[in-house]
Structure of Class II glutamine amidotransferase:
Amino acid sequence: MAYLGDPILADDLLFRPEHSIIDQSLHPRLGGGITTNGDGFGIGWYSPDNSSPAVFKSTHPAWNDENLREVAPRIRTPLLFAHVRASSGTPVQRSNCHPFRSGRWLWMHNGSLAEFPRVRHDLQMAVDPSLYPLLEGNTDTETLFFLALTFGLTDDPPAAVARAVGFVEQVGSRHEIEHPVHMTAAATDGESIWVFRYSSEKATSSLYFSNDVAQVRRLYPDLQSLERLGTDTRFIVSEPLRDLPGAWTDVPEASWALIRRGQQEVHPFEPTVPA
């Protein structure tokens, strides 16, 4: 889950929605067979007066972490990333929890790079030598993030992620892996959020962003919780936080979207093999 809008308490974002990210960690509805996401969690956020993000991660299940309940009512933020993890095979440890951070950038990902242990060496050897020492964990998600950074994430996020995904598919093909990539991913520089929905087999997990709050208010004039949200508020979610027809846009398969205050745009996503 990602939030962009007027500063708000993290507690209101993490715990109060009907189908919050905490509820999703226990009861995912669109998880593709995953019954819980209990292999750790993480949040990353920007302070209203600070361009560098902070992160808080734990290997505890999100629904049972007292430290998260302690800090969430004390974090006020205009942009928050939150992720609950179901490991695809790598260890349950703090360095493997999302979101991942580099400078002012945050990154998180649902999905997997198929047969990652077989391709990990080839992928990580392509990471820029100046970035390689910053790898902390051993997940496919962090590797994909550092490949995107290598291919220019800070200058042109859509092109960089297209190159990173194209490279992963190229390496996967060399290893005779049929469907190397499955991802919904999000990246932010603290001002804008880029999201990506793509899989090699064209069967990617769900991804949504919220529509204009003024429009949603007109649809649901009696829903008082909407009155507290600024007009530029946007949510990005794997599963809708509440069943409100007309409130959510489904990001199409093989697409990327740019979300910023008062603006959203959707474009086709196509991997490119880097030179």
Notes: The chain has seven helices and 13 strands. The chain has a mean pLDDT of 88. The chain has one domain: 2-268.
